[in-house]
Design goal:
Layout (H helix, E strand, L loop, with lengths): L9 E8 L25 E4 L5 E12 L5 E8 L7 E7 L13 H6 L3 E5 L19 H15 L5 E11 L1 H12 L6 E5 L5 H11 L3 E2 L2 E2 L2 H7 L4 H4 L7 E6 L8 H9 L3 E6 L8 H18 L1
Parallel strand pairs: 5-6, 5-7, 7-8, 8-11, 11-12
Antiparallel strand pairs: 1-3, 2-3, 3-4, 4-6, 9-10
Helix pairs in contact: 2-3, 4-5
Length: 299
């Protein structure tokens, strides 16, 4: 793969072999080495079809119009000269991309580039610029739209095959970004999307509360989020949508995805029995496989 050149909205920081051992969990502490390890040896992997494949990773930085830097990591399949599809995987509220990147090799082995990134101020351990109290649903949509525009310009990406995938609040943001620019998104995969956020924001705003899961929100978060008509926004995206939701989710109950199913024009909902908010073990592996199979069907 030839070296990438600096462009107006991104640049490459480093390249490394895929050195993250797969873990079937959407949680876990970030690996210590992710801050700056520069292992450049490609790791041979075995794809589902039994053929050996080298998965490479690259640290990426994207720059918003206001100069804030969005940092992430991309997992890359081997190339045969053709442009590749890409999925942009968005983390949830207060989290970071290290919690999700164990899924990267699975997508790459399926021939799909997989990009993870931290929203600006998206969580206490974010690698991207900005503080947590600066973050709103709107700023995260801006981050994602910046990333979408930049990845479409990458020389190894097919701009006609850009997919979004998001978990929890990242699912809400992915759904909103897809509705804003439907022509740019081939398909949309959502894990327990947090369509509950506008309702929760209204309740907190009326009560004068600003804390969620032990994290203090900025004043603008609920002031903006309370007015989002999410079920009025979703139908603007008419492409294929897959939602995956556990029937024991107490943070975002299943009924929020069931309602979304009724307003989307081309959507499917897979319910994982016994799963809560966030997947572990077999549920995590199953959700990844459902997503990969769905995206590959759109390629």
């Amino acid at each position: 793969m030839k070296n990438l050149q600096d462009r107006f909205c991104w640049y490459q920081e480093e390249k490394s072999g895929a050195d993250v051992s797969p873990k079937e969990s959407t949680g876990g502490k970030p690996a210590e080495e992710q801050g700056g390890q520069k292992d450049r040896d490609g790791q041979a992997r075995r794809s589902a079809g039994g053929m050996r494949m080298t998965i490479m990773t690259e640290e990426m930085t994207f720059v918003r119009k206001d100069g804030k830097r969005i940092r992430g990591r991309i997992y890359l399949p081997e190339r045969q000269g053709e442009k590749l599809p890409i999925v942009i995987f968005c983390h949830g509220f207060g989290s970071n991309y290290r919690e999700l990147m164990h899924h990267g090799e699975g997508f790459a082995e399926a021939g799909i580039c997989c990009l993870f990134f931290d929203f600006c101020g998206g969580g206490p351990e974010s690698f991207s610029d900005g503080g947590f109290e600066e973050m709103t649903v709107g700023t995260e949509c801006e981050d994602l739209e910046t990333v979408i525009g930049c990845v479409k310009a990458l020389d190894y990406v097919d701009p006609r095959r850009v997919f979004l995938q998001g978990e929890s609040m990242g699912g809400l943001v992915s759904a909103m970004a897809a509705a804003r620019r439907p022509e740019d998104i081939r398909a949309l995969a959502l894990w327990y999307p947090a369509f509950v956020i506008p309702e929760g924001a209204r309740k907190r705003y009326e009560a004068g509360e600003r804390e969620v899961f032990g994290l203090r929100l900025g004043e603008a978060f609920d002031r903006e989020a309370k007015d989002i008509d999410i079920y009025g926004i979703l139908p603007a995206y008419r492409g294929p949508v897959l939602m995956i939701h556990g029937d024991q989710d107490e943070i975002v109950p299943l009924c929020y995805s069931e309602r979304a199913l009724s307003v989307y024009g081309d959507a499917r909902l897979i319910v994982i029995p016994g799963a809560g908010h966030g997947y572990d073990g077999a549920d995590s592996a199953a959700a990844r496989k459902y997503s990969i199979d769905f995206l590959r069907a759109q390629i």
